[in-house]
Amino acid sequence: MPTVEVAKFDMERLTGLSYREVEKFLEYVKCQVEEDLGDRVKLEVTHDRPDHFSAEGLARTLKGMAEVELGLPKIKLAESSVELKTEHIEERPYITMAIVRDVRLDDEAIRQMIQLQEKLHDTYGRGRRRVAIGFYDLAKIKPPIYYRRVSREAEYTPLGFEKPMPVGEMFEKTEQGRKYSYLISRETPPALVDSEGQIMVIVPVLASECCKITSSTRDVLIDVTGTELRSVTNVMSVLLYSVLERSLSREVEVVTGGNTYRHTYLQFDVDEKRASSLLGVPLSRQQFVRGLEKSRHEYTGVVTAAPYRINLLSWIDVVEDIALALGYNNFPREPPAIISVGRRHAVEVLTREFRKIMTFMGFTEVNNYVLTDESVSDICKPIKVVNPISELYNRVRCTQITQLIATAAVMRQKEVKLFEVGEVVRDGKTRKVLTFLVSRDGVTLTDGLAILKALCKASGYTCITKSAQAAAWALQGRFATIDGDISGYIAEVNPDLLTKLGHYTPVVVAELFLA
To answer: I need a labelling partner for 281 at 20 to 30 A (CA). Which of 127, 394, 412, 420 fits?
Structure first.
């Protein structure tokens, strides 16, 4: 779960509530106090609510829960006189810009803007690979603005530095340069440049000291660049609503050129009957509408939500908002219809024995989620989740192999020995599976077969291997099926799949179906 830090006085200022009242409503938005630092507090927020990555977004939600402000927060759009001129940048082809005027910033407000920027970079932006964000003081920029490539010899003053330096030098001397310059062409990096040739930022690496926001900034220019237009637009919505909480205006100026920002309200077809059916409790029209208004939505026959609610994918998500607004603790409790005595299932007894054996053989156990991403499709045909919380969890796994390879890639050790016992869904059935992985230079199918033989002997099960036609993800001539008391397969993994998952050391995997 992401952790955000906010000042208590700032939450009081933004919500109009005392901090004691703020604390009372945090549970309604699934936030937990991780650490009380006196005048500040660290909060654990859910990753599916990026609008909660700063005090402004949290305050907007809490005002609804406390009924300080109800209903849909609306903004006005206007076309800006500032113009953006772009050239095609292959690494980051999408860019959108907008301006929020009449902002009132202090040190805490700037701190929250930076926190929101970095949290979005790390989560939704996939470490700036998919999305990168910039804030600028518009008064320090001379339009029009150009999104184009510059030379690595071009000079600018990176954020936090006092003197200008060549862009190529910045790549080596700054933490951001060393960390993010691999995302772009280091010879001709993309940049935002104003009409006087002033470099505003090397995208997506590091902004310039020339136009940074300060407490005297009144007009904030926001840019979002990325590799996917929908992600760029979604992030811009989150940013605009956040900065507007610090503004005396409710108007946003959309910068022309590039990929013009489209402010689109979300709509869902749901009424109190569908909500009642899903929640299992009867809701009156008044309760239904009140729950929506406290969630900062609007109801006019259909539910309308603000664009910053990028986690809302279907009407089911809207009903969850209503349940949170009404309070889970306010729902009636019922005892289960069937009361039974629990005992360990035979399959669990079996899997416990296999876990012991694998551990004794020097393997490390991992426990991945049943939900995974679309890379699992390279092995088998998974079930797609209709309303996923995240693109990282949009498939029900049909194998554990890709997750184990991804884990091995992160470990970056010369030799990796992993195993997992868990559930997968194959051909519409839930199966209990033991999967093990060995990764090191020179590892072959023979090594995997030796481990399999030792495992079967220790468990007392008969395992018969037979060479078979390899699937596309495995090497031909290096694939075998497993029959006998336990079925499954064992193989050397195709380097193409390893490369796709970010692992560059040979791998042997086996998957045994225990139930």
So the answer is: 394
Taking only Cα atoms into account, the Rg of the chain, rounded to an integer number of angstroms, comes to 27
Please give the pLDDT value at position 160.
92
CA distance linking residue 339 with residue 335, whole number of Å: 9
* Closest-CA residue to 491 (of 447, 427, 455, 433): 447
- The residue ranking higher by pLDDT, 389 or 16, is 16
What is 74-113 written as a DSSP string? Answer: --EEEEEEEEEEE---SSS-EEEEEEE-SB---HHHHHHH
H or E stretch covering 250: none
Q: At what angle do helices 19-26 and 55-65 cross, to 10 degrees?
A: 80
For 268, list phi and psi in degrees, rounded to 5: -140, 140
Q: pLDDT by residue (tens digit) across 129-158?
A: 999 999 999 999 999 999 999 999 999 999
Contacts 24+ apart (CB under 8 A), 312-315: 312/266, 312/268, 313/387, 313/388, 314/268, 314/386, 314/387, 315/268, 315/269, 315/270, 315/274
Better-predicted residue by pLDDT, 332 or 253 = 253
Alpha carbon of residue 139 to chain centroid = 33
CATH of domain 346-513: 3.30.930.10
**Please, what is the end-to-end C-alpha distance for the chain in angstroms?**
33
Whether CATH 3.50.40.10 fits 76-256: yes
Count CA within 13 A, CB hemisphere, residue 207: 18
Please, which residues have CB within 8 angstroms of residue 84's CB and are 6 or more apart in sequence?
Answer: 95, 97, 144, 145, 146, 147, 255, 256, 257, 258
Give the Cα separation of 57 and 49 in Å (integer): 9
pLDDT at 350: 86
Q: Which residues pair with 481 in a beta bridge?
A: 466, 489
The closest alpha carbon to 421, from 346, 492, 370, belongs to: 370
- Helix or strand holding residue 63 (H, E): helix 55-65
Instruction: For the chain, give the mean pLDDT.
Output: 93
Domain boundaries, the chain: 3-65, 76-256, 266-313, 346-513
55 near 219, Cβ under 8 Å?
no
Residues facing residue 286 across a β-bridge? none
What's at 4, amino acid-wise? V
Q: Would you state the pLDDT for residue 330? A: 83
| Mean pLDDT lowest among 124-133, 343-352, 408-417 | 343-352
CATH topology for 3-65 is: Phenylalanyl-tRNA Synthetase; Chain B, domain 1 (3.30.56)
HEC sequence for 426-477: ECCEEEEEEEEEEECCCCCHHHHHHHHHHHHHHHCCCEEEEECCCCCCEEEE
- Using CA atoms, how far residue 182 sits from 130, 179, 233, 456, in Å, is 13, 7, 24, 46
- Cα dihedral angle (204, 209, 211, 215), rounded to 10 degrees? 110
Q: What is the pLDDT of residues 163-180, one digit of tens each?
A: 999 999 999 999 999 999
Q: Report d(CA 289, CA 291) in Å as an integer.
A: 5
Contacts of 397 by beta carbon, 8 Å cutoff, 6+ apart = 368, 370, 371, 372, 376, 382, 403, 424, 425
